[in-house]
Amino acid sequence: MIRHAFCLLILFLAGCQTCQTPTYTRQPDSSEPWNTNYLIDAQPSAVPLTRLYEHAVELNDHYWAYSQVNGVLLPAWRTDTALEHPDRWLGGGDSGLYTGQALATFALQYGATKNAAVLQSVTESLRGLYILTHSTGEPGVIQRNAFPAHRPTEFGFPAEWQSRIARGYVGTGPELADPFGGPPIPPSTYYTRGTKDQLTGLILGLATVWRVMDPATVDGGHQQQAVQLRAVAKQIADAIYAHLVAHNWRIRARNSNTGEWDNDTGADYVDQLLRACVLGLVVHMGNTGLQQEYDEVFDEFIDLSNTLAYADRFANFSQYYAHNLRASRTLTLWLLEGAGSVKGQAIAGYYERNVWRFTRGHRSAWFAYVRAATAPTDTIATLEGLYSLRSLTLKPIRMWSSPYHGQEQKPNIVSSLICVNRYILDPHLRKPEDFSTWQKEPWDVGPERDWDREGLGDSSGIDYMLAYWLGRYYGIL
Q1: Coil, strand or helix: which one is 109?
Q2: Measured distance CA(391)–CA(470) in Å, rounded
Q3: Alpha-helical regions (H) of 69-175
Q4: Which DSSP category does 458 fall into?
Q5: H or E, element range at 465
Q6: 289 CB burial (10 A radius; 0-12, 13-18, 19+)
């Protein structure tokens, strides 16, 4: 006992030496478009509430114009800095994950607005998920990325895909029948080597469609579309489940070099909370024969989560993105189970215990609104999410550098445990990201180099839109 107290004292004293509030140097001002010093002076609290919806609309329009192909989210890019708008795409390695988040975004948007026009966004995004789980010709094989095979140069293929090709995880699949009865989907060039990250996003998207598109709750006249959307979501979920079971719950793909089913990653075994999400989804979709297995996996994880909380606190230091995965999996089960169920209350408790207490104050609308959805009385989460959204409206869509680029001040292991919030920056001051602001640490300002004077990429806007429509759907905003 004395030894433990002594260790705690040492940690406390070490923390006192490192818990200094970071300071940043302002770079020389300039009128050039790449100079983002104006963000330092911006005040998120001054952003009017009406601006939140306006920004969501702007990002929505930009997304459908530049950040997706056949419903698959792909990073928008320019071949020349002089171009006002992107004219090509990068071969995003996380398109599977974020296409799932995009599907969740538009399903929540429909749930919040009942706007029939949004159903087209849901349909296109669900078709994107179908492509990402079927374009190899073997249903259920998760792909990180897929694009129309007859348009290779627009995606930097094959020059920018050589390492993927060499590993044996790139191929071109067959023409697919459109799950919605439209024209056939042309063959896709795909990149497999899927991970639990990709699966987490896919399952979130499918679960959101299943919950929001309940024919009993959709707006009048939309029941037929809701039934069709649910049927396609079920088709995808069943294919993923069958594939996982066939490979003993490991994410696998056929390697073109060896012909074997394998995966060159250590993040391919689906267990614990993610397995509960998969099982919960197929159970809610009608496979009641898996109810007992789902209950057992869920209960076992919840029992274990009290112990895991001791390790989860270290994610702030070395595995920050793990918080995002836990938030997605929490929301998946919350959407499926709801507030009135025993499982719903258990998953809300898990989120508070294993995620929120370590991310409270991080100015992440995503983390805050998952908390507010699962704990409606938490007004701190509601206010933090609102501040975060206001901040993110200030950030340009074009990926100019943070005004504090090259000055990252990251907490060490001690300060990450006891004073991490001193290092948190407002979202509009952080490094730009093509997929999502929340995927990086909240003190990440980018590499030590000159300001990005080209701004070739654009952000997808899914980070803002997912949090915004989640807030609208649950009545938080």
Answers
A1: helix
A2: 17
A3: 95-113, 118-134, 162-167
A4: B
A5: helix 462-473
A6: exposed
Radius of gyration of the chain (CA): 22
List 340's β-bridge partners, or say none: none
Provide the 10 A C-beta neighbour count for residue 44: 18
Give me 454's structure tokens.
């080209």
Q: Kindly compute the dihedral angle of the four CA atoms of residues 440, 317, 348, 211, in this order, to the nearest 10 degrees.
A: 20
How far is it, in rounded angstroms, from Cα 218 to Cα 224?
A: 10
Q: What angle do CA 463, 464, 466 make, to 5 degrees?
A: 70
Distance between CA atoms of residues 43 and 39, nearest Å: 8
Residue 211 is inside which H or E element, if any?
helix 196-212
Which DSSP string do the residues of 301-334 spell out, in sequence order? HHHHHHHHHHHHTTHHHH-THHHHHHHHHHHHHH
Residue at 462: amino acid letter = I
Q: Which pLDDT tens digit goes with each residue over 428-470?
A: 999 999 999 999 999 999 988 778 899 999 999 999 999 999 9
Alpha helices in 220-341 (DSSP H): 223-246, 272-284, 291-312, 315-318, 321-337
Q: What is the pLDDT of residues 412-426, one digit of tens each?
A: 999 999 999 999 999
Q: Model-level pTM?
A: 0.95
Cis-peptide into 158, omega within 30 deg: yes
Q: Write the pLDDT tens digit of every residue in 130-163.
A: 999 999 999 999 999 999 999 999 999 999 999 9
Q: b/e map of 103-134 (b: 16 or more CB within 10 Å)?
A: bbbbbbbbbbeeeeebbebbbbbbbbbbbbbb
Residue given tokens 């419903």 in the structure block: 71
- Residue with tokens 């001054």, as numbered in its chain: 46
SS3 at position 63:
helix
